[in-house]
């Protein structure tokens, strides 16, 4: 006690004993989320398409004393998503406390110039993979009796921005998906929330692009 006031711990809360899966955790927002969760004591598994980048991050986290593991996964592949969840289930004894659907991408194009390939790519990466991973994680989250899903959306999901019609549609869909899953899975002690950042300096876009996106 100092001056009659109670001493406040530097770490007011802890995630020790909790488990988490963060997609796209080797860079940008996902990297920060992994470090935050691990810093509070959670055991974290993350994934990346790039084996070298993943190995480099795992070495860094080990040096910091974080409990982080990882595997290579292309989230566009349904089979690889299923393999990822099998790995997570095995590693965390078929229980998961936290799923962060972070991985996403974009292509800046005017609507009239967007192709069917652009549409399929963005919908599959940003929306379908997150929905499917949530489905796969459902029994693990339910088994933990304290499940949490966090979707990383964007202000683009609620505000019109130039050149981002398809990207914005995926994020608007994520916002609605969050509401539905929150209602459907509340009875299973699974909370579902969305975080919608504004402009964040990440590596989603190439140098020279005129807008910075969130994931």
TrEMBL record:
InterPro entries: NAD(P)-bd_dom_sf (IPR036291), Sc_DH/Rdtase_CS (IPR020904), SDR_fam (IPR002347), TR (IPR045000). The keyword Transit peptide does not apply. Keywords: NADP, Oxidoreductase. It holds the Pfam family adh_short. The keyword Disulfide bond does not apply. Coiled coil: none annotated. Belongs to the short-chain dehydrogenases/reductases (SDR) family. This is Tropinone reductase 1-like isoform X2. It comes from Coffea arabica (Arabian coffee).
